[in-house]
Amino acid sequence: MEPGQPPKKGLILGFFKNEDQDGYHIIPTAGLQIFDTNTNGELSELLKLVSGSMKTGRSSLFYTLSRSYFCVAVVNLGSDDVEINEQEALNERRENIRVGLGLACQQLKDLGVTSFEVDSCGDPEAAAEGCFLGSFTYDDLKSSRSLRDEVKIFLFDRTEMKLQKWKQGLIKAEGQNLARRLMETPANIMTPSNFAEITANLPISVRVHVRDRKWAEAEKMRSFLSVAKGSEEPPKFVEVHYTGASSSMKPIVLVGKGITFDSGGMCLKPASSMIAMRADMGGAACVVSAIYILAMLKEKVNVIGLTPLCENMVNGRANRPGDVVTAKNGKTIQIDNTDAEGRLILADALCYAHTFDPEAIIDVATLTGAMGVALGAGATGVFTNSEHLWKIMQNVSYNTGDRVWRMPLFRLYRQQIINAHLADLNNLGKNGREGGACTAAAFLKEFVEHPKWAHLDIAGVMETKDDTPYLRKGMSGRPTRTLAEFVVEYIKHTEDEQR
Predict the structure, then answer these.
(1) 160-184 vs 282-296: helix axis angle to the nearest 10?
(2) Out of 211, 236, 343, 478, which one is annotated catalytic?
(3) 343 catalytic, yes or no?
(4) What pLDDT digit, counting tens, does each position of 93-104 carry?
(5) Got the DSSP string for 131-168?
(6) What is the dihedral of CA 35, 62, 148, 482, to 10 degrees?
(7) Which parts of the sequence belong to the Cytosol aminopeptidase domain (predicted)?
(8) For the purposes of burial, counting CB atoms within 10 Å of the CB of 33, is it exposed (0-12), middle (13-18) or buried (19 or more)?
């Protein structure tokens, strides 16, 4: 926007389009009906002409319908009859709203519109998620401030109940955008110390403990520290406590991998594979951001977030292939590949998680390239020893659109990592890259004694390319919203069982 020019104001409306043997039928949303009433039905007449060619999720732009708006975007939200699609593992109606409104927000923003009102489309929470996720861009480090005009988004068809749901969606989107910002920030800025400082200064009611190397040494976290010793950046172990319920409620412990840059160590990655490794702390980012959501919504849950933070770099002290380190639980680990470092720092963090007598333990990590090969960006891979935990997480992901997919924890994968030549465990499977995500999960399981544990491998969903239309290309912040909603639903189920 040029200096001195008034801000461009836009409006986004939606309609559902049901098809049957007689053709298609337009079902206007409440917002579209309100606008139509105020403009003598002109928009409905125009939709009759263009809606036949509009695909689900796409919008048509109108520039002369109202003097109040520079532009009106009308979005095809697909059928209003669909909900849970088991084959697609999501609530299609909610996801269509996110996609349609998210893309419309991007369109209007690209046109220079800096303020717009949005139709709730019958689901204000999903509408807010689509809009605020869709309008996010990371350009914090660009000198051209014109790219950073703040976009203001308001609910069009406001009622008290709709505004409450809208606010919930806004907070959930803000949480995911926080994770995206943390993951996008270059590694020379997002050091372990800076990540810890940002976490400690978030505007939420939590207790944050930033532990240092001496504390980790006292806790006998030698596996974690073996990775950290290859870098000049000091390691940090950040512990975040959110207490939204009585102290009698056991906490859910979330553990996030926090490698703020991964060079591969002595087993150096190719240069092209290093570029995105500023986001190898995506697990830690999602954990902190999920707690941000829970605290902002004042959810009645108790959560502890644990994020071991360090760089995986190369110096004279770095881990070498063939080295053996001892984890917090006393198990020895033969390091056959220094680029399999995430599991080394998580091993000690998982051991430490048990000290809180938790209700459940969930770890989140950009752990293996093999997961990206297996699932791509379609879903987060979930390994769990609890059918109950899995069902809750699966159902939650249907509604968030942040899909999860269960992966196996067969005994044969454990056989691939135990009884290493020099130690109790090997940090790589004996069959090399075969089943890499599964052997990595089996390795982590060696440090878990809790009957309700899940490992989320988010390597495949770390980045957005063209797979999630309402997220621009870049780091995705997935599955922050699924993680936050899982905690709430898990506690609800636990309380129901105890009644």
Answers:
(1) 160
(2) 343
(3) yes
(4) 999 999 999 999
(5) HHHHT----TT-S-GGGGPPPEEEESS--HHHHHHHHH
(6) 60
(7) 337-344
(8) middle
- Taking residues 474-496, report their average pLDDT: 96
Summarised one tens digit per residue, pLDDT across range 35-85 is 999 888 888 888 888 887 889 999 999 998 888 999 999 999 999 988 899
**310, 261 Cβ separation under 8 angstroms:** no
Locate 157 and state its tokens.
Answer: 């068809």
Cβ atoms of 416 and 425 closer than 8 Å: no
Q: Which amino acid is at 51?
A: S
Q: Model-level pTM?
A: 0.96
What integer best gives the mean pLDDT of the chain? 94
Strand partners, 256: 364
Q: Could you say which of 269, 300, 406, 430 is catalytic?
A: 269
**Read out DSSP for 383-435?**
EES-HHHHHHHHHHHHHHS--EEE----HHHHHTTBS-SSSSEESS-TTTTTT
Q: In the structure encoding, which two tokens stand for residue 78, read together? A: 């697909």
Q: Which residues are registered as beta bridge partners of 154? A: 117
Nearest partner of 12 among 92, 79, 70, judged by Cα: 70
Q: Does residue 142 have an active-site annotation? A: no
